[in-house]
Amino acid sequence: MRIAATIKEARAFIAELRTERAGAESGNVVGFVPTMGYLHEGHASLLRRARQECGIVVLSIFVNPIQFGPNEDLDRYPRSEEADLALAEREGVDVVFLPSVEEMYPQERRTTVTVTGLTDVLCGASRPGHFDGVATVVSKLFHIIKPDRAFFGAKDAQQVAVLQQMVVDLNMDVEIVPCPIVREADGLALSSRNVYLSAEQRSEALVLSRSLREATARIESSTDVTPRQIVESVRQAIEVSPLAEIDYVQMLSFPALAPLKHEEDLSELRKSGASVILALAVKFGSTRLIDNAIISLK
Ligand code: PAF
């Protein structure tokens, strides 16, 4: 496994591997997993998928300052370079790109990638500027790594929708591959931020996956339930927890993230075989957790 601290090194390592592996089947297909480090089983599942499908696997670890708001957790975002490199090695990564902030942003930045519309809702509404930071850094990383496929977890479903729109709008020659949410055995969606939770907060946070599961079952089994009833039932379940502070619970179409008619049942959407997303963000103390369920109405 090669570790690149600079853009020049990353490009050289990847170019070398592309030439070396050109003959083999999928040998010079580059699979890319961009991360902010503090890697867990969710990241490992993305790396495994990339390893299965691509001859060259590149991982980036970069805590991107421009996607954090002024009062967010940039300064305390968990980091663990040694453990991350050990996990990367175990998962058979070929190149780890581990740049510094100065390497990625060497001068005052005057270019921002903004995806409109999709970023006005959900986390985009609660974290102004967040998706500009994500789209900007991911397009920089795509220019550096030049991946054929890039793998992202569906826990950040809005991020996936935003990046899918970006690559189409900007004719980027990369396939965005969404991968399923990985959960602990008790249902908690894996997140680097789970480490902030106290034992009590962690136990109460189980209400998130539980309420999404129950709502999904209700949507799948009931023909006349409305989006408003679903959102209300999830809110009520979460509000039982004294430690939970709801940022949002929303149900939208997916991947367009367009509003639904909240008073109407879902039968019109069922006819068109559309998908919906039921998404939530909830704070436990200062830790903000997100989770979602994408439900096909076919
Ligand atoms: O999902 C993340 O970890 C980040 O938003 C990403 C895609 C690595 C961009 O910094």
Describe the protein in words.
By secondary structure, the protein is of the alpha/beta class. The chain folds into two domains: 2-179, Rossmann fold (3-Layer(aba) Sandwich), CATH 3.40.50; 192-296, Pantoate--beta-alanine Ligase, Chain: A,domain 2 (2-Layer Sandwich). The chain has helices at 7-20, 41-53, 81-90, 101-104, 122-126, 130-145, 157-169, 199-204, 206-221, 227-239, 267-272; strands spanning 2-4, 30-35, 56-61, 95-97, 149-153, 175-179, 244-254, 275-284, 287-296. The strands form two sheets. A six-stranded parallel beta sheet has the order 1-4-3-2-5-6, sandwiched between helices. Strands 7-8-9 form a three-stranded antiparallel beta sheet. Strand 5 (149-153), helix 7 (157-169) and strand 6 form a beta-alpha-beta unit. Helix 9 (206-221) packs antiparallel against helix 10. It is globular. The model has no long low-confidence stretch (mean pLDDT 96). The structure holds pantoate.
